[in-house]
Design brief:
Helix 1 packs across helix 3 and helix 2 (54-62) packs antiparallel against helix 3. The chain has two domains: 1-128 and 243-259, Ribosomal Protein L22, Chain A (Alpha-Beta Complex), CATH 3.90.470.20; 131-242, 4'-phosphopantetheinyl transferase domain (Ribosomal Protein L22, Chain A), CATH 3.90.470.20. By secondary structure, it is an alpha+beta fold. 31% of the residues lie in helices and 22% in strands. The two termini are 25 Å apart. The protein has helices spanning 42-49, 54-62, 66-87, 140-145, 148-151, 154-161, 168-186, 252-256, and strands spanning 30-37, 97-98, 104-105, 111-117, 120-126, 131-137, 197-199, 209-212, 222-226, 234-241, 246-251. The longest helix is centred in the N-terminal third of the chain and has 22 residues, at 66-87. The strands form four sheets. A four-stranded mixed β-sheet has the order 4-5-1-11. A three-stranded antiparallel β-sheet has the order 6-10-9. The chain contains eight helices and eleven strands. Bound molecules: coenzyme A.
Length: 264
Amino acid sequence: MVLATDRGDIGRPTQAFGGADVRFSLPAGDVHVWQASLERSPQIVAQMHHVLAADEQARAARFRFARDRARYIVGRALLRELLARYLQSEPEGLVFQYGEFDKPVLRSGPWFNLAHSGSLALYAFSAAGEIGIDVEIDDADFASERIAERFFSPAEVSTLRAMPAEEQPRAFLTCWTRKEAFIKARGDGLNLPLDSFDVTLASDAHAELLRTAWCAEEAGQWHMEDLSDRQAGYIAAVAQRGNGFRVVRRKVEDTIEGSMPGQE
Ligand SMILES: CC(C)(COP(=O)(O)OP(=O)(O)OC[C@H]1O[C@@H](n2cnc3c(N)ncnc32)[C@H](O)[C@@H]1OP(=O)(O)O)[C@@H](O)C(=O)NCCC(=O)NCCS
């Protein structure tokens, strides 16, 4: 997929979303999940770099590998472009605040979070409550390199180990992304012991926070949805504090083709 900006006929990535006049609305009961590719031409990356704040540009400069730097720039520029459409503001004018564990937030809302795996990025936006999203490319090597016993709760480990061996890599990633989505929604980073809460992990079980060690009521205060896309080859989940929500999925690339639901 090619961004409109790859045509080289415009000066800034804003045009990627159909021009500066395109506005998105975010009803309280919806979570919008956007999928995007972080692979862009060097020219587009250079344009997107201008949209970033000085601290983001400084962080970009610290990446050791050019590919990681470019993906970070694109990820942040697209985040700004999407938020600007919800807020009816300019992407470069947005000022992110950072939580104790570096979660970017906007004081004015909406709640948002992003995750990337390889060249894929997923963004979640909500008007209703704290939100977290995680994605992993469906890769058995990633799963087998990581030992469940190190990251998961005893209940999750025993559920995983009771599964047929061929199902375990996928279940591992399902568990991983659900746990990460919850941690990211709370903004706790790895400060929250990963074995202190349980999530469902069978791919056919509804995504759910089952229990936390610190509060009997907490599990009931969160809602989770699985976002995995077998065809696209990724496993993903989103968690939000509050009641249930409807997931509305969109692709940045489709938007460029002009099929954008929910425009005002
Ligand atoms: C930082 C962390 C929140 C997620 O890191 P990650 O999995 O490497 O990265 P993801 O792609 O999921 O998310 C990164 C994005 O989340 C956002 N983010 C950063 N810190 C965050 C935090 N504390 N909470 C929520 N979101 C955060 C940022 O937007 C970041 O992307 P950007 O800096 O390029 O804009 C943290 O949980 C972490 O370091 N995890 C390590 C992995 C691990 O051990 N997981 C065990 C799971 S069982």
